Amino acid sequence: MLSPVSLMVAMLVVSGGAAAYTQDYKDALMKSIMFYEGQRSGKLPPYQRMTWRDDSALQDGFDNHVNLVGGYYDAGDNIKFHFPMAFTTTMLAWSVIEFGDFMSPQSGHAIQAIKWSTDYLLQATSIKDVVYVQVGDPYADHNCWERPEDMDTPRTSVAVTKDYPGSEVSAEIAAALAASSIVFRRIYPAYSNLLLTRAEEVFKFADSYRGSYNNSKVGRYVCPFYCDFSGYEDDLLWGAAWLYRATLNKYYFDYVSTNVYKMSRPWNVGEFGWDTKDAGISVLLSEYLFFNKVDWKPFIPYADEFVCSVIPGSPNPSVFYTRALSFLFVVYANNLKWAKRVVQCEHGVVTPSRLIDLAKSQVDYILGNNPMETSYMVNYGRNFPRRIHHRGSSMPSIKQHRDHIGCKGGTPYYESRGYNPNLLTGAVVGGPDEWDQFADDRNNPGQSEPATYINAPLVGLLAYFSEN
């Protein structure tokens, strides 16, 4: 599991010292989507391409007499944390909505990756006013090094309710279902309607029974792993923004435009990720605001300020960039192009093409144009991480080694200096430190652990650059 700090650090902006290679964005796109097959929990489908994996966690939810089989393990462990899983789903759906036309022939696999999650999120929200937020005991899991197929640690399932609310995770699930409903609207309309109906129900629950899951009875399970550090108000706005995008019901737009002024904390113009949604909300709404030419305040000024706060050359630049911020650059650049606008910053004008160039440089950095000349995507490029912090990847496949490997039986594999025997193709790891150094070390999860929400915005970026 990556720490909250590590999650935010995706790459450094470098000015020199890196060899330049021509990148194969189509190959990287294919692999970035395939990664999700290595993270699947539950009964694997016949079209599974990551063949060293097998069925796992087939009784999840049975402790509470619900079916929670399926979904994704979030990172290198065997826990299903629904907050980052839902954000991953939202970002995959947004990638298809914005750049699906560039994904062929990978669009079918991208949609399968989304549906693997939405099917699960429907199960997690199948009981009215109950939202399951996690499956597995993270303390027991982190004390073991086991393949998911061998798990014998507790598979505790925990939920938020009216009495013990969790507005942030519930609102993010609503966002994921709403965004995904747009993806399925033409190809699977009945399923799309189901997703949208459930999204509205879950959002109403999140809004009606406000509170952070940090402070509920599930807090001891979700913290410190995926504590909500930014508060739940941004998640409610994010959920409402996606419901507006999916329904065009003005109620949801009014909800966002009214409640943004009632937040109990300042707007974080330059932050976006599984925890903080502020910059994403501004960029998401920008298309509607530009197209309808309605009052742009405060979201277009916020979006512009986001650009000015992170673009190189600003008086107070952000040092670290994330895949999610790069994704926002491209989406906002396309909206600016349509509106025939540029961003006027204190240090000069920022054009859409500059935003796109910056995002491209970040993608290229991940793929190998960096001082280490290392691709941070597994099985892409000439030099890539081979000792990633991932249980299933680092141990013999159950297809080859059928004997059960218990909790501590995996320790020798964890401590080994050898390469992981199974390639988790497409997995993007935490990446280098602030000095551009990368330790290909299983015992350094901050640098060597992949996570579903790291790949999700990169899918959209790779699709865009594969055709532009």
From TrEMBL:
<comment type="similarity">
    <text>Belongs to the glycosyl hydrolase 9 (cellulase E) family.</text>
</comment>
<keyword id="KW-0136">Cellulose degradation</keyword>
<dbReference type="InterPro" id="IPR008928">
    <property type="entry name" value="6-hairpin_glycosidase_sf"/>
</dbReference>
<dbReference type="GO" id="GO:0008810">
    <property type="term" value="F:cellulase activity"/>
</dbReference>
<keyword id="KW-0378">Hydrolase</keyword>
<protein>
    <recommendedName>
        <fullName>cellulase</fullName>
        <ecNumber>3.2.1.4</ecNumber>
    </recommendedName>
</protein>
<dbReference type="InterPro" id="IPR001701">
    <property type="entry name" value="Glyco_hydro_9"/>
</dbReference>
<feature type="signal peptide">
    <location>
        <begin position="1"/>
        <end position="20"/>
    </location>
</feature>
<dbReference type="GO" id="GO:0030245">
    <property type="term" value="P:cellulose catabolic process"/>
</dbReference>
<dbReference type="InterPro" id="IPR012341">
    <property type="entry name" value="6hp_glycosidase-like_sf"/>
</dbReference>
<keyword id="KW-0326">Glycosidase</keyword>
<feature type="domain" description="Glycoside hydrolase family 9">
    <location>
        <begin position="25"/>
        <end position="462"/>
    </location>
</feature>
<keyword id="KW-0119">Carbohydrate metabolism</keyword>
<keyword id="KW-0732">Signal</keyword>
<keyword id="KW-0624">Polysaccharide degradation</keyword>
<dbReference type="Pfam" id="PF00759">
    <property type="entry name" value="Glyco_hydro_9"/>
</dbReference>
